[in-house]
Amino acid sequence: MSSTLLRTTPALRTALGASGAVRRAGAMASTSFVRGKATLPELSYDYGALEPHISGKIMELHHAKHHQTYVNGLNSALQTIAEAESKGDFTKAATVAPLLNFHGGGHINHSLFWENLAPASRDGGGQPDGALKKAIDSDFGSFDTFRSQMNTALAGIQGSGWAWLVKDKASGTLGLVTRANQDPVSGPCVPLLGIDAWEHAYYLQYQNRKAEYFDAIWNVVNWKTVATRFEKA
Amino acid sequence: MVNIGNLWQYLALQSPLQSMSGDHLNHTHTKMAVTAYALPTLAFAYDALEPHISAQIMELHHGKHHQAYVTNLNKALASHATAAAAHDIAGQIALQQTIKFNGGGHINHSLFWKNLAPAGSDDARPDAAAGLVAAIEKTWESLDGFKRAFSAALLGIQGSGWGWLVRDGDPGGGGGLRIVTTKDQDPVVGGDVPVFAVDMWEHAYYLQYLNGKAAYVENIWNVVNWKTAGERYLGTSKGRVKPETR
Ligand SMILES: [Fe+2]
Ligand SMILES: [Fe+2]
């Protein structure tokens, strides 16, 4: 994998600007709501920090454009529902449910995703240790088996969607689930690690070779975040 | 040995609304009694749709994405034939979703290529489909009104999928036009006849339009093959791809 795989067009370079915006390191991204409004979380690393595994251009578009669109769509759905509610128009409120699920799910999923990535030079890559490692070994057999099962799940998604490592709250065991489009993980499953299998997550760099993206992303998985989520779940 | 000789028939059997005529059952039986589908050749060069759809997109879309659907469809159909020969019903059922996804991908892209034409060509002019345009104007008041409604449907798709203009093909159904969307690679089967299709998977536009899918939707009207659409509407082309076999 190398950044030479990236093919850019003049239009793309223009759209992204010469340098690419720099996101200052800050608090960990979170699903933050300010006065009832969802906002785009800041990343704790620069757009280019995940290269060569995920290009800076992908990261910038993915965060600043795609995620922002989900944030806007979520706020708009919430506003429509609030207005409908204030008029007692519950039919109207109910018809917004698919938009709420799609944009709300998109906001939640991407917020979790940014947090479970980190530069390979910092916390990204490698393997989990401690209690998380024990749980993976016990529930999947080994880390390698887990990783290959997750890659198989990702490759098997027919259309847009996500694959997640989850913890079942009731049994405490780990498992893999996939979700279509932006459907969020809910119910008894707590999401620990999500991988975005939408084409926008990899197309500019990997085009149709999505298996290469699914292999490369393990170099930038932040196991510290996954372990923290595991312990809290 | 059960022969899944025709993909259309197979997929239509998944739908309770199927009404199939025999004239699209144009395929070659091999000695193995399993039809192998092949990537159709395009009627135009990869760069012929520029600047609206780039050559790089067309090359990947046809040469890689569509090819993968064909390859995986053939694999699944071969496995299905083996399972059928072994009277393995569970094995056949287990393959249905794979056949639907890849078979749908093959059908949808085959229809899509044929309903595209270079901008400015005679085929890309709405007056190449006078009968269809008259029916569109009757339903949506104007061609522009239809384009607005169709574009809104395309932009409303959540995730991967397709937008379609379809004609009601059920006997006695009136032949009315409707806009429908399908998710992922779900094809239009059953009573509806596809008139034209627009691919809304991100791979269809991302290298050129990035997250700006509204611009892709706006520009695709320049490369719609109205002649093909008009023929599918009138039934002079079946509107059903005759899958090419090898
Ligand atoms: Fe995404
Ligand atoms: Fe496609």
TrEMBL record, chain A:
SUPFAM superfamilies: Fe,Mn superoxide dismutase (SOD), C-terminal domain, Fe,Mn superoxide dismutase (SOD), N-terminal domain. Destroys radicals which are normally produced within the cells and which are toxic to biological systems. Its cofactor is Mn(2+). GO terms for molecular function: manganese ion binding; superoxide dismutase activity. This is Superoxide dismutase. It holds the Pfam family Sod_Fe_N. The keyword S-adenosyl-L-methionine does not apply. Residues 39-118 form the Manganese/iron superoxide dismutase N-terminal domain. It comes from Trichocladium antarcticum. PROSITE patterns: SOD_MN (PS00088). Belongs to the iron/manganese superoxide dismutase family. Gene3D superfamilies: Fe,Mn superoxide dismutase (SOD) domain, Iron/manganese superoxide dismutase, C-terminal domain. InterPro entries: Fe/Mn_Superoxide_Dismutase, Mn/Fe_SOD, Mn/Fe_SOD_BS, Mn/Fe_SOD_C, Mn/Fe_SOD_N, Mn/Fe_SOD_N_sf, SOD_C_sf. Residues 128-229 form the Manganese/iron superoxide dismutase C-terminal domain. Keywords: Antioxidant, Manganese, Metal-binding, Oxidoreductase. It catalyses: 2 superoxide + 2 H(+) = H2O2 + O2. Mn(2+) binds at H62, H110, D196, H200. GO terms for cellular component: mitochondrion. Its EC number is 1.15.1.1.
Automatic annotation (TrEMBL), chain B:
Residues 132-231 form the Manganese/iron superoxide dismutase C-terminal domain. One of its GO terms (molecular function) is superoxide dismutase activity. Its EC number is 1.15.1.1. Keywords: Manganese, Metal-binding, Mitochondrion, Oxidoreductase, Transit peptide. GO terms for cellular component: mitochondrial matrix. It catalyses: 2 superoxide + 2 H(+) = H2O2 + O2. Pfam families: Sod_Fe_C (PF02777), Sod_Fe_N (PF00081). The keyword Nuclease does not apply. Mn(2+) binds at H61, H109, D199, H203. The keyword Ribosomal protein does not apply. InterPro entries: Fe/Mn_Superoxide_Dismutase, Mn/Fe_SOD, Mn/Fe_SOD_BS, Mn/Fe_SOD_C, Mn/Fe_SOD_N, Mn/Fe_SOD_N_sf, SOD_C_sf. Residues 37-117 form the Manganese/iron superoxide dismutase N-terminal domain. Its main location: mitochondrion. It is found in: Mitochondrion matrix. Its cofactor is Mn(2+). Destroys radicals which are normally produced within the cells and which are toxic to biological systems. Belongs to the iron/manganese superoxide dismutase family. Homotetramer. This is Superoxide dismutase. It comes from Trichocladium antarcticum. The lineage of its organism: Eukaryota, Fungi, Dikarya, Ascomycota, Pezizomycotina.
